[in-house]
Write a structure and sequence with these properties.
The protein is α+β, with helices and mostly antiparallel strands. About 60% of the residues lie in helices and about 10% in strands. It is elongated and about 85 Å long. It starts with a helix and ends in an 8-residue tail after the last helix.
Amino acid sequence: MDFEREIDDLLPKYRLLTASIESIIKNLIEQNNIDYLSISGRTKNKEGILEKIKRKNYKNPKTQITDISGVRVILFVESDIKLVSDIIEGSFVVDRLNSSNKDENLSLNQVGYRSVHFVCDLGEQRSTLPEFQGLENLKFEIQIRTVLQHAWAEMAHDRSYKFRGQLPSNIQRRLYLHAGLLEIADKGFSELATEIDDYTRSVNQSYEAGNLDIEINSISLTEFIQNWAEKNNYPLEDASENVNAQVSELVVELAGFGIKTISQLSDLIPSRFVQKAKELNFRTNIFGLVRNFMIIEDVEKIMNQKNVKWTFYDPNEDPDEIKLLRDLSTEENFVNIRRRIDEEMYEAEDHEYAPDDDDFI
């Protein structure tokens, strides 16, 4: 077989193609701010290629086998599949004959394997670039799935020997019933994601209209602080990685402080905060900002909460912060701030220099 002799020469090109396509797709999806679980590429080995040619009885394998290079995109919600599909169609030359939407191929009374498959090539324009030299006209496959679609495919289509093949009818029926539940859940999560987007837009519209009578939750809090920072030309620092969990903690801390609406939070912000922060060139992220609002108002009220888990302050880290707290707090509150700082510093030093049990042996 001529193609079999060519495989060894073609495989390095396909490996380069796989890496290139994976990188391009990742960049495109991130540029469009679409959340994803994973984007992974793989290149079939020679044995896998020959096995597929034999199994499919390909007469012209050079044109018929289109998935030597493959990239799989796993998304969180079903509605994003259309967004990513549009990106793929606008970025590569799609082979319509060999591409498919497995979801659309299911009959009305069927449930089962659901995934969008594109077969593409780089296209004439991209193929002329030096980094893609030698990769023109090589086909590759892109699979797009949601997390739940991927779970089903891995169990019942790709990997799990227990769920493949023709099962006893009662087990087969229950298997497809569960597949139907996954499909319903997939669509439900997609609808919820759309509702969250709609809610975020409505919150921002309320802020623009001056309506702050909105309950504090992770979305309304984040959007309000970002809006406030933009309007006041206050450069927020990037938050740490575990943003959602920390924002949830912040919502709980605000509730414990008696702040349950955005209007109450707005009233909490010291009138001279932005002016003083700019004078001191003091910057912080959303967590430091909101906590400073509470500390400046009443340090005891925030620190006496059982849910407060963070260390209050280390003056050696940022001396400008202590100046900010001093200038914006009442005299009585700043005395309490200093006391809190001294207590924490003392406890830290005591812990650092405490003798080990081994010292007494």
